[in-house]
Amino acid sequence: MATALKNIGPHLECDICADKYKQPKVLDCMHSFCQKCLEKYYTSRYAGQQTIPCPVCRRETALPETHIQGLKTNFHLMGIVEEVSLQEKVVSSVKKTPEEDESKCQKHMGEVKWFYCETCEELICRVCTVVSHCKPKHHYIESGEASRKYKQSLKDMFPDFTKDIKRLEQSVATSSQAKQKFTQNVTKTVKAVQDKADKKRAEITTQETKMIAEIKQLQQDRNRTYDEHQSTLTMMLESKKHLLGRSQDIINTASDSDFLSLYPIVSKDLKSLKSQNPPQIDPKLSYLSFTPGQRICDINLGKLELRQWEMCREFGTEGRGPGEFNWAQSVTATQPGEIAVADCFNNRVVICSNEGQHKGTIPLPTGPLAVAAIHNPEQRLLVLDGSKYVKVFNMKDNTLVMQFPTVPKHQVDKTEMDLQSLAIKNSTCTIVVGDIKRMVWTEHRPTDGEILHTIPVQTPPYYLAVDDDTERVVVSGYNTGKVDVSDSKGKTNATIRPTINGEPVEYCRGVCCDSSGIYLVVYQGGDDDTGHIHHYDLDGRFLDCLAQGLYNQCGITFTSGGQLAVANGHSIQMYHKV
């Protein structure tokens, strides 16, 4: 025991004071030091700073508000120190007796334990081998041989144990990094909630100020009307009182001749005033009330996301057959559980299940650039194939229903255009088409394709998406490296300029929206594996990167089940939240 205590002692000493730990505090790197030693170390070198480097490995540890005192106490280490100190006292006060000598057999006086019984895992003497540990039930070997054998067996375990230690150290580091990232996300999320709440409060205050101003103006206008009405009534009242009093005086005081000479005048005045009716005021002018708005649910700060996206499957390979793609350019959700893929270089649109099972094909004369679906009883699939027309197919049998231009028919041949993108305003099923040549998006009636609006844009609409709640239109500008978030009239509310590792991206590609914000495919250029999928809110603030190291993704959409489907050149990648 004395040897064991001597060996373990150095592991229970503080690396600063070289004495046994006193109130040990543990840093993020898992090194521990006496509280007073750390306080002296911090005060002398890093006073006032928010972090402290480990005196041994130099790794930084963030300090709580109470600095060193607020660090976690290593109670486990304290317990070991106290136990070892107690054992040292016991060893120093008790002398070992001959009977306690572990080399001597306690059963057979004077015999030395020269052997080791492997069956019972204990040292035995010569007599034991023939009395209580005899063969064949017991197997024993010479103690020196046993010591060498089992030392080697322990040594053979060390490599795996060392690997386990390294894995655990890596796990500790990974856990620490994850905690640090979570702390950063907490700060970022709290700020996002506060920003959103501030914005909503500002919107409510603006409405309140506007409404109260309207009430005050209404009060001013109506008070003026009431004042004018009361003034007129007062004048009529005074006139009638005056005439009545004068008439009574004439009757009571004038002589007959004077009365008769004044009678025609007084009679005429009385009749004149008697016939005057007082002006009426509209009783509705006094009505004023407040009806609380029914759209209180529009004030929605959002929700906390406790799950993250990860790829759940990928299907498709390069080729021309079923289950194969040759540059999957665009993707859209069609019927429940199905998607349509613009298989550009194979000159076709492929219909398949969300699991990759082939459902059908729509052959085209040229390669499709974009697809979109109208989810109404008619079930229409829209396709852009490089022509000047939007082609509309029946999703039930994949037949062509109609095609329509994005300019008046008589101007089609005279107008240069390059139709690249499609989106649907789901509330009205309005079709939105992006033209990068004319730098517009056009809106069309779903029943016949009639042009409803032509909206100029600042960013070429290579990809389009529409937020169903606000009808904001998101325009992804491909090689411009930016994305505009516009209102329904084309006014830019926000511009997103994505970055990867602090550097502006070269390409912004596919984009889609849901209630949680905007999902955007971006690329740095150069290598094919620099693609990311970024998540932004509808005000253009970056929220998260849900995938990176991607090959060559283009279009992106939400499936009917809420998964993300991404066109990835020769395959389709599906992402879900876990």
Task: Provide a short characterization of the protein structure.
With 578 residues, the chain is α+β, with helices and mostly antiparallel strands.
Name a few traits of the molecule.
578 residues, four-stranded antiparallel sheet, 30% helix, flat, Znf_B-box
Report on this structure:
Helix 5 packs antiparallel against helix 6. The strands form 11 sheets. The chain has a 4-stranded antiparallel beta sheet with strand order 8-35-34-33, with no helix packed on it. A 4-stranded antiparallel beta sheet has the order 11-12-13-14, with no helix packed on it. Strands 15-16-17-18 form a 4-stranded antiparallel beta sheet, with no helix packed on it. About 1% of the residues have low confidence. The chain has 6 helices and 35 strands.
Q: What Rg do the Cα atoms give?
A: 44 Å
How much β-strand is present in the residues?
25-35%
Mean pLDDT: 89
Mind describing the biggest β-sheet? 4 strands, antiparallel
pLDDT < 50 runs, ≥5 residues: 95-100
For the record, give the distance between the C-alpha atoms at the N and C termini, rounded to a whole number: 52 Å
Tally of individual helices: 6
Shape: flat
**Number of separate strands:** 35
Widest sheet, order of strands = 8-35-34-33
The chain-level structural class is alpha+beta
Helix content: 25-40%
Organism: Patiria miniata (Bat star)
Pfam families: zf-B_box, zf-C3HC4
Protein name: Tripartite motif-containing protein 3-like
InterPro entries: 6-blade_b-propeller_TolB-like (IPR011042), NHL_repeat (IPR001258), TRIM45/56/19-like (IPR047153), Znf_B-box (IPR000315), Znf_C3HC4_RING-type (IPR018957), Znf_RING (IPR001841), Znf_RING/FYVE/PHD (IPR013083), Znf_RING_CS (IPR017907)
